[in-house]
Amino acid sequence: MRSTKLSIITIVLVQVACLNAYTQKFENLALTPPMGWNSWNKFGCNINENIIRYAADAMVSSGMKEAGYSYILIDDCWQAGRDSLGFIVADPEKFPSGIKALADYAHYKGLKFGIYSCAGRKTCGNNPGSRGREFQDAMSYANWGVDYLKYDWCNTEGQNASESYSLMSDALFEAGRPIVFSICEWGLSKPWEWATEIGHLWRTTGDIQNNWDIPDAKEGKCWAGGVLINLDMQQGLEKYAGPGHWNDPDMLEVGNGGLTENEARSHFSLWCMLAAPLIAGNDLTQMDPVSKDILINQDMIAIDQDKLGKQGYKIKDYGEIEVYYKPLNNSNMAICFFNRLDYPVQVEFDWTSMSLSATRDSKPLLLGSKIDRKDNYIEGQYSVWNVWQKKSVGTTSQKFIASLQGHDVIVLRLTSVTKK
Ligand code: GLA
After folding, report:
1. For ligand 1, what atom is nearest to the CA of residue 184?
2. Considering 270, 304, 338, which residue would you say is the last residue of a domain?
3. In angstroms, rounded to a whole number, what is the distance separating the alpha carbons of residues 240 and 246?
């Protein structure tokens, strides 16, 4: 009896070891952070095939596709159950034409198409998950022409995250169609430490909410946070991101009405500085011009999509005013000044010492910085381009002086004009 038990344990251990040893993912699929649209932030479970088709239409007609957005992603609540053979079936009322027809439609529009499932037996919306059906579901997705899978983590009590995600990664690989694998485990077991070989992006936080800040929500205490909470959880994760494997601070809330214009611009800019996936979460058919201009800002998108694939990070932290830095291809770089205060300040940045001073009504504001990363000091000279003002603002031989609005950013792109 004891030896039977032991040999069963051995078989299980060997299987798990093999599973880990052979995990493979499709390479060259997300060499820059994925860009697209997902139904969840705006529509939640109230989705149907027309909403998805109209989103695809609007992605093209609004200029989003031209700006680089390509994935149309259905989130939770498309599933109805399983057929007699266990194959996953779409809700016939919401999706009467079936999922393959939607994938075909997205492809016909020159877009890519993605879907959602969960590592547990049930999704977060209580629909059938993929637990125990991983290979069968991966085959369905491949047959339908799916290009992207977001894979959630609800109802997984007792499951090991890296094993569960490896299993689905293997299933996708076996099914043979290149599918971007988006790990949605909310950062609970530090997927940045184990998911590089398994997925193409992984969530680092709980669900973003349609607001700037939730005063009571502190990291680890509250499940869902506003823009600031998700932003602050990225610090220190920059070394884990790179071409084909990205930290994901969750989808965008630009255009959903919960942020002021300054806040929406900051949210988008900071996500670009972080080389975050840019997954719009608003109603693309009803975009106001301000939200659209933010989402399709070419210079900002170029910073996010820069092929060097480095995630930016905070190099100075003066409390309420911060400086972010992102190295770019060809020795260029992006600098972002971010004002958490709700009033404007005058900032002065000295490129030689990389030090910032700020004043309000001519009174000095800043004390010493809590962070001082010296790995980014500038050598040589750079021309400076103000991304949101869309104009050249001199070179790094002069101080940069500007007014920085409350809850707003100034983003500068520096292009090398001298050889190092
Ligand atoms: C979780 C995910 C969200 C969304 C919902 C759907 O909360 O983190 O992004 O997919 O599930 O139920």
Report:
1. 8
2. 304
3. 8
